[in-house]
Structures are given as C-alpha cells and as structure tokens.
Amino acid sequence: MRYFALSIILLLFNGCIYFNDTGVSTKYYSKCKEYYDSNGDYVKECPTNLINYSDFDK
User: How confident is the model at residue 53 (pLDDT cuts 50, 70, 90)?
Assistant: First the structure.
C-alpha cells in the first residue's frame, strides 16, 4: 500500500519532486539553516521531506 501511495504521489508531482539523501522533497537542494546559538552550540535546521526513506524501513 505504501508503494502504491508513493507512486501516485510521484505521478501527480512529476517534475516537481526530487530525490535527495534522506528522502523525497519538492526542493532540489535542502535549504538548511546552519548557525551557532548563544550557548555556542551548532544548530542545523532543515525543512522536512515529503517522504523519508527511514519510514519505509519499518
């Protein structure tokens, strides 16, 4: 059922969906924001994907 839903999504958004390292997204490059907060900790915030590859491992 998951593969059927994935194929329907891919057909509907053909040309607007890109495969990246962690999943399927609507952006070719993941526009992550990287910065150091006031405590000096490194923070990397990335937009979420439509589908993550880790969801299919379950």
Answer: confident
